[in-house]
């Protein structure tokens, strides 16, 4: 169990849940004025989780055997392709029948039923060919869905390492698994894998980056060469950090096509960046840029697939946008969203079809404290204001 000791803390922190209750939000960086909502994009809300079971008897079997406990289901990360949304449902508690699902965001959708993705077979706990607990997902430019599976289930109850961690790539067009990358040799028993990024080099080579908070490392995997390595970050990256809590990573695209990885620990005071070319060649030493002091404990919740990073402050419902081509300073943080219901955003994702940004939010702190009654209230909202 020692290996899992830090997992719960990391989980609490990963999503920026305050130890106390959610504070009422102030507009620290200026006035936030809601815009008119995009007319063909409405927020969708659901409680707990409902699934499309193959048949009614499967559902009752799952329920009676404790494999389906609707109030234990929560979506924390999302990706959109057209009208389909893919959701990560980490197995924080027992009774989450599927950890990767899809559903529809078509206007007029009023109930949300999850369809296990790509199929039921890949959701089986204890089968290491299947997904155990998906904590992050990315859709790339080739419509490939990449998911990070930690292999650890029941994180909030009694964590169990069911399988080695892995990254799985699936074709969205066919639903076929294209590639499974085992991270076993690149991690240790104390690893805490949290975030996933997919990057294409100028020559088309595909790379995957995974943050390992406990080891102060970024795992780099070269798909073409089918090999990976660990880039251990310098000690300065954790300076002032009480614990190696959450290592956020965000990939930024420059107009010229080059990419950079921005990263920071939740409880450190500084933000850093590194050109992806250095990361890909494993020569980070002396090339990491120190972007300066963070004004607060930032929870990085996503990018616009361009130069902007979205974040909120720990425990705060207000979301800000910072364009990384401007100086890292409070004057350049623009308020872009605030949940009307004090829910906390766990992911900000581009909605390419509607040319807008979406936010996945929930009463995650209540879920953590097991105070959700019928289940966590989750919403796929729309970013408002100017972004
Ligand atoms: C992200 O941006 C790049 C560069 O503009 C583009 O080629 C790619 O298709 C975008 N990603 C997605 C998933 O659309
Ligand atoms: C950053 O990019 C935005 C739009 O992409 C542009 O309007 C702005 O001038 C840029 N800022 C800097 C400092 O280059």
Query: How many β strands by DSSP?
Result: 26
> What is the chain-wise order of helices and strands?
HEHEEEEEEEEEEEEEEEEEHEEEEEEEHE
Give the assembly state of these chains: single chain
Unreliable runs, pLDDT <50, ≥5 residues?
1-9, 16-39
Helical content band = under 10%
Mean of all residue-level pLDDT scores = 88
Based on secondary structure, the structural category is mainly beta
- Rounded Rg: 20 Å
The end-to-end span amounts to 44 Å
- What is the CATH level 1 assignment? Mainly Beta
Tell me, briefly, the overall form: globular
CATH architecture: 6 Propeller
CATH topology: Neuraminidase
Tell me the number of structural domains: 1
| Strand order in the largest sheet | 1-26-25-24
Name of the CATH superfamily: TolB, C-terminal domain
Number of helices: 4
Sheet with most strands:
4 strands, antiparallel
User: What is the percentage of strand-forming residues?
Assistant: 35-45%
Pfam families: MRJP (PF03022)
Subcellular location: Secreted
Family: Belongs to the major royal jelly protein family.
Protein name: Bee-milk protein
């Amino acid at each position: 169990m020692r290996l899992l000791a830090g997992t719960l803390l990391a989980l609490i922190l990963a999503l920026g849940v305050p130890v106390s209750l959610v504070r009422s939000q102030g507009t620290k960086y200026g006035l936030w004025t809601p815009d008119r909502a995009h007319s063909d994009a409405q927020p969708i809300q659901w409680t707990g989780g409902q699934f499309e079971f193959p048949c009614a008897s499967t559902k009752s079997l799952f329920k009676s055997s404790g494999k389906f406990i609707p109030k234990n289901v929560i979506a924390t990360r999302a990706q959109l392709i057209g009208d389909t949304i893919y959701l990560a449902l980490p197995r924080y508690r027992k009774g989450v029948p599927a950890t990767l699902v899809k559903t529809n965001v078509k206007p007029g959708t009023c109930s949300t039923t999850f369809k296990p993705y790509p199929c039921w077979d890949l959701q089986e706990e204890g089968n290491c060919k299947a997904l155990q607990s998906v904590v992050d997902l990315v859709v790339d430019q080739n419509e490939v869905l990449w998911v990070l599976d930690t292999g650890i289930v029941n994180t909030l109850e009694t964590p169990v390492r069911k399988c080695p961690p892995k990254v799985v790539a699936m074709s969205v067009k066919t639903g076929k698994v294209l590639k499974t990358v085992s991270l076993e040799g690149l991690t240790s028993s104390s690893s805490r894998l949290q975030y996933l990024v997919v990057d294409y080099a100028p020559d088309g080579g595909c790379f995957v980056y995974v943050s390992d908070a406990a080891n102060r490392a970024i795992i780099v995997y070269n798909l073409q060469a089918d090999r990976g390595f660990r880039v251990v970050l310098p000690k300065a990256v954790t300076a002032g950090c009480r614990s190696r809590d959450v290592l956020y990573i965000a990939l930024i695209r420059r107009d010229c096509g080059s990419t950079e990885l921005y990263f920071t620990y939740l409880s450190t005071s500084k933000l850093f960046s590194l050109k992806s070319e250095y990361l890909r060649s494993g020569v980070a030493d002396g090339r990491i840029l120190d972007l300066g002091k963070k004004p607060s404990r930032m929870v990085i919740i996503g990018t616009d697939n361009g130069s902007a990073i979205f974040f909120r402050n720990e425990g705060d419902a207000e979301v800000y946008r910072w364009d990384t081509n401007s100086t890292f300073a409070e004057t350049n943080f623009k308020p872009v969203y605030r949940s009307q219901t004090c829910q906390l955003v766990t992911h900000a994702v581009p909605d390419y079809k509607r040319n807008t940004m979406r936010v996945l939010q929930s009463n995650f702190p209540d879920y953590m404290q097991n105070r959700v009654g019928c289940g966590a209230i989750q919403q796929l909202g729309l970013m408002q204001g100017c972004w």
